[in-house]
Amino acid sequence: MSEPISVLTQRYDVPDAHTLAGYERTGGYQSLATAFDQAPTDLVSQVKDAGLRGRGGAGFPTGVKWGFTPRGTGKPTYLVINADEGEPGTFKDRELMERDPHQLLEGIIVSCYALESERAFLYLRGEYLWPGVRLEHAIAEAYEAGYLGKDIKGSGVNVDVTLHYAAGAYICGEETALLDSLEGRRGQPRLRPPFPAQAGVYGMPTQVNNVETIANVPHIVQHGVDWYRSMGTEKSPGPKLFCVSGEVNRPGNYEWPMGATAREIVEVSCQGMLDGRELRFWTPGGSSTPLLTGAHADTPMDFEAIMEAGSLLGTAAMQMFSDRTSVVEAARNWTKFYEHESCGKCTPCREGTFWLSQIYDRLLEGRGRSEDLDLLDEICDNIFGRSFCALGDGAVSPIKSSLALFRDEYEHLIAHGRLPDGIEAHTDAVDRNSGHGRPEQLVGA
Amino acid sequence: MSDPSTNGSGPAPEIPAEVRAKAEEIVGRYPVKRSALLPLLHLVQHAHGYVSDAGVTLCAELCGLTKAEVGAVATFYSMYKREPMGEHLVSVCTNFACHVRGGTAVYRHLSERLGVGHNGTTEDGRFTLEHAECLGNCEGAPVVTIDYLNYEGQTPASAADLVDRVAAGERPTPTRGFPPEGIRAVQHRLAGLGPAPDGEAVVAQAGRASDQARADDGAVPIPEAGPGVTPVTIEPTFSAGQEAERERARQAVRDAGQDPSAVESGAGPQAREFPTTDPDWEPTDPGAGATGGPADDAADDAADDDQEGTS
Ligand SMILES: Cc1cc2nc3c(=O)[nH]c(=O)nc-3n(C[C@H](O)[C@H](O)[C@H](O)COP(=O)(O)O)c2cc1C
Ligand code: SF4
Ligand code: FES
């Protein structure tokens, strides 16, 4: 049994945590002195030893990735914060930036020092207006107080930050597409190698890290590797934000150690599924990760266990759907998303998502053909592993997994031209969620 | 819908002098000018409510690009509109977590109520409607945003009421943030410039222009870096050197106590952090070849299959 914890979310209930005064009063910016007393490379080793893994979806060990950045090349090194959060079902970075923006800034300062970088770009999803307003305020305060800028608190360390609003394209969350977008181009993925660690923004060594990843860093530096490893599992240590949505009583962001089970999180934090509904299918890490069923609810939510269960931890966006909801309709909805968000650079994804979405329309309009399921399979196989970037692979995840796990629903649709009895998708709005129990965030109202 | 070239009635819009000054300030923040393009396009939408021809010309001039290059970028991103937006932009999330709680029903109802479809603007120029992909607020599904301020837990009736109230000049409070101030004022913020100077006083206290880093802060601008030039030597894609690089990357993961193959496949197709080689490729430099064990090699091949393909 795990218990909910409160590391990254420790200030979510503090009404003024977003201000410098509130942040400092609750122990903020204390990791800086500890960090600046050590050599940058020591910090990289600590992050490596702590076993921190990227929270942006891939789960790559952060310390190891930092180790790929060359030092002493005479070129500037850049830190890019990936705050483009667009994976359907994911909303952890948003709340983190809204409620505790200084925590992210502290992470940026420590990470820049560890990477010997003096410039960070915060690439923020364009629709994230309110998180942006809170961040701007925090950045301005941090500059005034000498936490950002030149010679931070007399340490000789320089860190400057640029907040950069993006303009609405899911693919720009992919790190190389993000770099192109940050350079003022269409956001299309780049061929690797060269890897961003060696040649990223403007061809300079660059680290791209997720918001939550960077927010973990000051905690590791301040409280140590052993403390960090006391949470989570051996291979996936640390605290984790789980974004639970869909048909549960209290959707929201909940912090648990890695390895908590979906059942625990949903029962304890979300007060279970909506009345009279049972868990039928869910995504463990956003719509790009293969679906799991109710039978997988006791799988520990860590990178290894979820992979063994046949899916991926992704962004830990748990979208929970019940026995009243159609999995085919879900797959169509997400397929339309990928069709819209495909950047068009490579043929399998650009054309394939378009065909897939037409087949889904046909199925759900009762015009499905018996050969459609094989056709779906075939198109998926032509996209998976044959696309230029991981968006293509993500696009077919819900399709392949739903075909494997819920083939009967597809077959019913084709045979009868309608969904099985008892399945209807639209349910009432529910306005109870975790955010609503927390301090209000209103200005000028 | 209005004609973009005339913005409703008058002549094609020009760029006012103070907007140009702001544009220059934005360009001054980036080590390479072209990086300012996305914020500049937001600024153009602040000035004109859409990506106007005069705006494209300004961006092209300030970033050292052709107008076609600017147009190519502007059309890639869904927040840049090719026709003037109404006073307020209403977005309804119809992605699945919202859809199961009624998001699509909300969209349909609003579409009927306003008499416009996706990206359509009402005749009186008050509202532009769009359906949106996941807005990153699924805990509040179904979500409607007005000028990118989120109203959670909407029903078709409550959303229609919301729009009616805004139309009547009221200022309904969103779930968090501040009452909508109009899409053009918001575009000023998205350009990285804080609250718009002509914004409503009550909202102006929300946020501030932050001190932003300047072009050469922590970034030595390199002379050859510039529009269209990425100073990276592109090496032949498959080389012995890269094979060695890949093995070094894998070894580093091993040193950190993890199994590189597991990390690679565990992160799924998303993990493309390792340099990869063509499965059929044979190292020409035996000294630098891969040294992974037999078990690793099988996994590598599988991973490699994932990486290469028709692209
Ligand atoms: C289509 C696509 C979208 C992505 N979107 C995001 C995103 O919105 N935010 C994010 O942090 N990572 C996203 N990623 C993952 C990034 O490519 C990258 O792995 C991540 O930013 C690395 O940071 P981390 O090591 O801290 O996880 C996306 C990847 C793909 C393929
Ligand atoms: S897989 Fe899709 S998103 Fe990725 S490069 Fe190809 S077309 Fe673009
Ligand atoms: S699905 Fe609507 S906000 Fe995420």
Task: Explain this structure.
The complex is a heterodimer of chains A (445) and B (311). In chain A, strands 6-5-9-7-8 form a 5-stranded mixed beta sheet, with helices on one face. In chain A, a hairpin with an 8-residue loop joins β7 and β8. Chain A has 3 domains: 20-229, Rossmann fold (3-Layer(aba) Sandwich); 239-322, Ubiquitin-like (UB roll); 327-416, Up-down Bundle (de novo design (two linked rop proteins)), CATH 1.20.1440. Chain A starts with 19 loop residues before the first helix and ends in a 29-residue tail after the last helix. Chain A is of the alpha/beta class and 445 residues long. In chain A, α13 packs antiparallel against α16 (390-405) and α15 packs antiparallel against α16 (390-405). Chain A contains 17 helices and 9 strands. Chain B is of the alpha+beta class and 311 residues long. Chain B has 12 helices and 5 strands. Chain B has a 5-stranded mixed beta sheet, covered by helices on one side. The relative contact order of chain B is 0.09. At the A-B interface, α4, α5, α7, β3 and β5 of A face α2, α5, α8, α10 and α11 of B. Bound molecules: flavin mononucleotide, iron/sulfur cluster and FE2/S2 (inorganic) cluster.
Beta-strand percentage range of chain A: 5-15%
Helix content of chain B: 25-40%
CATH class category label of the largest domain in chain A:
Alpha Beta
Classification by helices and strands of chain B:
alpha+beta
What CATH calls the topology of the largest domain in chain A is Rossmann fold
Number of helices of chain B: 12
Unreliable stretches of chain B (pLDDT < 50, length at least 5) are: 1-8, 223-239, 268-311
What's the mean pLDDT score of chain B? 78
What's the average pLDDT of chain A? 94
Spatial sequence of strands, sheet with the most strands of chain A: 6-5-9-7-8
Number of strands of chain A: 9
**Which structural class should the secondary elements of chain A be placed in?**
alpha/beta
Bound molecules: flavin mononucleotide, iron/sulfur cluster, FE2/S2 (inorganic) cluster
Strand content of chain B: 5-15%
Assembly state here? heterodimer
Largest sheet of chain A: 5 strands, mixed
What gross morphology of chain A would you assign? Answer: globular
H/E element sequence of chain A: HHHHEHHEHEHEHHEEHEEHEHHHHH
Largest sheet: spatial strand order of chain B: 2-3-1-4-5
Which stretches of chain A are low in confidence, meaning pLDDT under 50 for 5 or more residues running?
none
